[in-house]
Write a structure and sequence with these properties.
single chain; about 300 residues; mainly alpha; two-stranded antiparallel sheet; two-stranded parallel sheet
Amino acid sequence: MTQRCGDTLLFRTPPVIAAQAAVGGKKEGEGPLAAAFDELSSDNRFGQSSWEAAEKYLQLRAARLCLQKAQLPEEKVRLVLAGDLQAQCTASGYALRELGVPFAGLFGACSTMAEALALGAALTEGWKLWLLIPLAMLMGWFIINAEPAVHILNRQVEDLSAGAISAKAMGMSLSIAVSAAGGLAMLRVITGVSIMYFLVPGYFIALALSFFVPRTFTAIAFDSGGVASGPLTATFMLPFAMGACEALGGNVMTDAFGLVALVAMMPLITVQVMGAIYVVKSRRAEKEPALPGFGESEIIELWEAC
C-alpha cells in the first residue's frame, strides 16, 4: 500500500521507468543537450503542413519510439498521461487517438512532466477505484471555470437579469452541476450501471422543477446544459473517463460516453434549484412587515414606535 507523509507518497513497491524517448527539432539540435535526444529534425515542422500537425507528429513519434525501446505493444498500454496547455492537450489527443491507446489529458503548464510522473506512479501502485469519483468531481469543478463560453453566459445572464442572477451564483451552480456529473460518470465506469438510471430521473426532476420556478430560470437552465458540455469537457473529462474505463476492462461505448449527457443534464437541475431558492426568498421578503413611513418634520412618540 502507498503511504502518505505530508505531501510525499512512499511506495512499498517503487515504480520503474521502463523506457524513455525524446524527439526534438532544429533548436534542440543546436543546444547543449542535443546528444540526449533519440531523434532530431532540421525542419521544425517535421515535413508537416502546419504547426498543429507538426506537434501531433512530434508526440506520436516520441510515443512510438518509447514503446519500441520498452518492447511493449500498443495494445498493452492501459493509460497515457499527456498534455500541458490546451494546444498540447489537443495535439496529444490526436496523436494518441492515432496510436489507439487510452488518454487522460493533464492541464498543468510547466508542471505537466512532474505531475504526470507522480500521477502515473500513484496509478500503478494499486490505486483505489473509488478515488476516481472525487478526482472526477474535482476536475469537473475547475474545468467548467476554464470554459470561455461559460463566462460569457454568466455575464449575459447577469446583464439581462439586471443583477438579480449574479455571475457568481451562475458560476457556482454550473460548477456544482459539472462536478456532480463527473462523479456520476465515474460511478458508472466503476459499477457499469446503465446511464438510464441517471438520465430518466434527472430529466424528470428537471421537467418537474420547470413548473415551479420562473420561466427565466428554466430558459437559462436549458441553455446552460449546452454551454457546460463544451470543448473543454470533451477534451479533458471524456478522455479521462474513457481511459479509466479501458483500464478497468469496461465497455467504453456503454460506460464512458455517457459523461457528456450527464454534463448536459445536471445544469438543468442546479440552475432551476437556484430559481426555486430565489422564489422562496422572494416570498419571505414579501411577508416581512413594512415599517411605517414618517415625514422629516413629524414627531415620533416612543410608545408608537415600539
